Amino acid sequence: MAYFPEALIPPQFLRAGESGVVSPNERSLLKLIWRHPGLSRSEVTDHTDLTQQSVYRIIDQLAERGIVLLGSPKPGVGRGQPSPTIRLNARYAYSCGISVNTDVIGICLMDLAGNVLSESSVTLREHTMAQSLDLVRARLVEAQKLNNLSAEALFGIGFAIAGYHVGGTRYNAPLPLHEWSLIELGPLLAEFFGKPVWVHNGANTGSIAEAMFGVGRYIKHFAYLSFNYGFGGGLISDGELLLGGNGNAGEFSGIYDAEESKHRPALQYLIERLNRNGVDVPSISYMRKHFDRNWPGVTEWVDEVTPAYNRLINAIRAIVDPQAIVFGGQIPSDLAQMMVDRTRIYDRPRYGVHRPGPKLIISEIASDASAMGAAVTPFHSTFY
């Protein structure tokens, strides 16, 4: 039987007498309010095809349910009686994002308005899957207590894992995560946590985080490069995640054959190079925190992966034509800049005119983007 997290949403969050959380019109208004918090109620009408009467009625219904809050009017906006401002009610619900990488599990709690309430992590080394989940649940309970959050207000869980999608909620993860691979994660995790669980590839949730909290605030079409133990990514088209026919759009490592794959920009190979050069780097998380571009082996590794990297950049440019390519995942910003500096665009101008190309942008999300994206996914999938 197919697994659908929407069927497990707690009843208190559902519309009266219906199975959904919000109607299509309510969702479109909530998406607008997410993007523009503090809009006045009268201003909302200018951004939709709905009548003013319909907008006011929908907003009043959302306010009555506690999903949005009406605030003080903006001075000098509109005619007649001042119109209240509107914001998502942060206290209405919160979610938990869990991102499983090869060395660490990132955990992020987020409220409905997109505020990060808590961030923590669990080391994976020498822990079984069951032990790791017990540790994650303990961190969740601890964060709930510290933030005075009730278990009932937990809307759902977003879960991200490194690896490509196989079918349903099954993913094929790298060797360090073999125990997590090729099993239906959705129903297993939903039973463990007692909440609906939305499952994604980690690079996809990183892309979602970038779309909602990073460059996506001003760029609607971009490719996201996720540098982790392996190397993958995601595609954002018109502000939304593009999954593709099999759920694997953005699996950029797929363009390389077996030999070329060893020279792609996967951070596992950089760590191996550093360790051979006498630099003790126990994990990717450690490398991100302590990275030094002058470590012996860094420049040599970047030079080695540059041809494969440049071929990918040009393939993305030619096939996807994004406005930007974002360097994200777990890559240190200094290392990302080294790769940007080595970028070569295979452009052949015609009549002296170059074909427009994407901007190369290093992500400014300093925390675990994959966990952040996982945390916002339950809300993004249902409310906005």
Automatic annotation (TrEMBL):
Transmembrane segments annotated in the record for this chain: none
Gene3D superfamilies, A to Z: 3.30.420.40, Winged helix-like DNA-binding domain superfamily/Winged helix DNA-binding domain
One biological process term in Gene Ontology: N-acetylneuraminate catabolic process
Species this protein is from: Neorhizobium galegae bv. orientalis str. HAMBI 540
Name this polypeptide is given: ROK family protein
Listed GO MF terms: N-acylmannosamine kinase activity
Species lineage: Bacteria, Pseudomonadati, Pseudomonadota, Alphaproteobacteria, Hyphomicrobiales
